[in-house]
Write a structure and sequence with these properties.
This protein is α+β, with helices and mostly antiparallel strands and 80 residues long. The chain contains one helix and two strands. It has a domain of 38 residues. The longest helix is centred in the last third of the chain and has 10 residues. The structure holds zinc ion (ZN). Zinc ion (ZN) binds next to loops.
Length: 80
């Protein structure tokens, strides 16, 4: 009674497709010198990658699905 429970450990939301090539995206794990582990999302098709890393898979997935990373700030010009 304890098989297949490892894969969905976090009840993660599923990743949306890549905004650029509509390809499949996957969670990538990044380790920095063994000090900390962070997660990002990378497209299996065009290899584009979320440019921010997150401490949990869930945050990485949610950010990818929201696509905050891409089209922000472009028209937020306050004219300082
Ligand atoms: Zn892609």
């Amino acid at each position: 009674m304890k098989e297949a429970s490892i894969k969905f450990d976090d009840n993660l939301p599923s990743l949306k497709k890549c905004p650029f090539c509509n390809g499949r995206a996957a969670i990538m794990k990044h380790e920095f010198c063994g000090a900390s582990t962070t997660y990002g999302v990378k497209c299996c098709g065009c290899q584009s990658e979320s440019w921010q890393f997150y401490p949990t898979k869930r945050m990485a997935v949610e950010s990818w699905n929201r696509r905050d990373s891409y089209e922000s700030d472009n028209e937020a010009c306050d004219g300082v």
